[in-house]
Write a structure and sequence with these properties.
With 177 residues, the protein is an alpha/beta fold. Helices cover 31% and strands 29% of the residues.
Length: 177
């Protein structure tokens, strides 16, 4: 018997794909729907404790998704660190743009992303080291969620897939082999 659970959240965020040859190169937004699926590590449900009879408590999964995806990204702008033209629009007044970008780059190198509101107009930014496509975000959010799922389940559940719906008709799945 194999169990899989899936939790879904939705966020609103802007992005652009600077290298895109068509309309996606323009700054625009999406109602992203993100799904995270988990399964038991040993193939069966937990047999004791507060998660007995579960793969992972849905509330625990939601908590991690809200902390790692919703809080830093919802109603913000997801930007590629390499998109200097876009990020240049958000350099705080009176700050040196090169120094501000270098600080973002150092944070991205250290943790794989930078989440900040230290920007012009207090714009919420989530800066990643790749074009923020649905595919890239699915992999990125998988990599951020996987250790949290392992921890919250006392190593009894594992994240198996993250799906990012960019529109109702378009989605990207990431499930490492």
């Amino acid at each position: 018997m194999d169990f899989v659970i899936t939790r879904q959240i939705a966020i609103d965020a802007g992005h652009r794909i600077a290298s895109h040859g068509s309309k996606c190169r323009h700054l625009h937004g999406h109602r992203y729907v993100i799904e995270a699926s988990c399964r038991p590590v040993a193939g069966d449900l937990q047999d004791q404790g507060e998660q007995a009879g579960m793969v992972l408590d849905f509330g625990f999964l939601k908590d991690e998704m809200m902390t790692l995806i919703d809080t830093p990204c919802d109603h913000g702008l997801i930007a590629d660190l390499a998109d200097r033209a876009l990020l240049g629009l958000f350099v705080p007044e009176g700050r040196n743009g090169d120094e501000w970008h270098a600080a973002l780059a150092a944070t991205v190198r250290a943790q794989g992303f930078a989440a900040t509101s230290d920007s012009r107009l207090g714009q919420k930014l989530y800066v990643v080291p790749f074009p923020p496509t649905a595919e890239g975000l699915a992999r990125h959010w998988f990599e951020r969620l996987a250790p949290a799922i392992t921890r919250r389940s006392d190593e009894k559940a594992m994240l198996t897939r993250v799906t990012v719906h960019e529109t109702p008709n378009c989605r990207a799945d990431y499930a490492p082999v």
